[in-house]
Write a structure and sequence with these properties.
The chain has 265 residues and is of the alpha+beta class. 48% of the residues lie in helices and 7% in strands. It starts with 20 loop residues before the first strand and ends in a 36-residue tail after the last helix. The structure holds glutathione (GSH). Glutathione (GSH) binds next to helix 3. Exhibits glutathione-dependent thiol transferase activity. Has high dehydroascorbate reductase activity and may contribute to the recycling of ascorbic acid. Participates in the biotransformation of inorganic arsenic and reduces monomethylarsonic acid (MMA).
Amino acid sequence: MSESVDELRSPNVPLPSGNVLRIYSMRTCPYAQRARLIIAAKGISADLVNVDLNKKPDWFFDLNPYGEVPVVLHNGGHVYESLIAAEYLEEAFPDPPLFAKEALVRANERIYFNHWTKKGIPAFYSLLKAGYNDPELTQRLMQNVEVMDNFLKTLGKPFFHGDTVGFSDYMIWPWFERMPMLKDVTEFEIPRDKYPRIAGWVDLMWKDEAVQKAAFDPKLMTEHYIKYRTGRPDFTIGAKKPNVVEERLENLDGLRDPTTRDRQT
Ligand SMILES: N[C@@H](CCC(=O)N[C@@H](CS)C(=O)NCC(=O)O)C(=O)O
């Protein structure tokens, strides 16, 4: 996956050669990251388009009536909602398989990421939005971390998928990558001694190649969420800026030919 300056390619723009699908994403979006993790783990060459969610074009709502990323464009169709998009990618690109083969194991994987999605994520955002170490909200998130820790304990494996990283791990991970950001904003921290399995899982996840590929600069992450909290998010954060040579006009007044002013080299 390669990206440069943000360029909002509509679905009508053909995929750049060598790419098999397009993903509409946003750099700090944990939901879009779910799909990007699957793409990275499977080595799918994807055209990554980062959408400035402050300036969504009308056609984006034709792709997803909720106006949210991620949207995956593939084979003349498109899929939205991160869990549905990730499952679609798993089915459309079966190699390497990331989901368990046995139905019961797979159902358990779903139970893990379903819990995190239903309970953990809302608790995460409630605390983040509070913006300080509110005891009740801190406790609510901690209880959900405990549930995740207990899942691993009962499973007796290092990953939610089992002995290796798999589908459920990628569905849960993005919010754990954001825990240092949450600590910056609210002082929330997972105590290693109390929740050693989840702490160990975080350590192992950081070693995964797809996790490293899909990761975002932690400083910019905190910067982004501070703005997000105040209701003024910058969705272009982390974009590489166009290669414009800045004009330095100080002390040049009267010395420059005005026709040269707009020249960019
Ligand atoms: N339930 C959706 C949630 C996706 C979502 O909330 N994405 C956010 C960015 S992280 C978004 O696109 N928000 C639209 C906006 O802020 O205008 C999913 O799982 O894909």
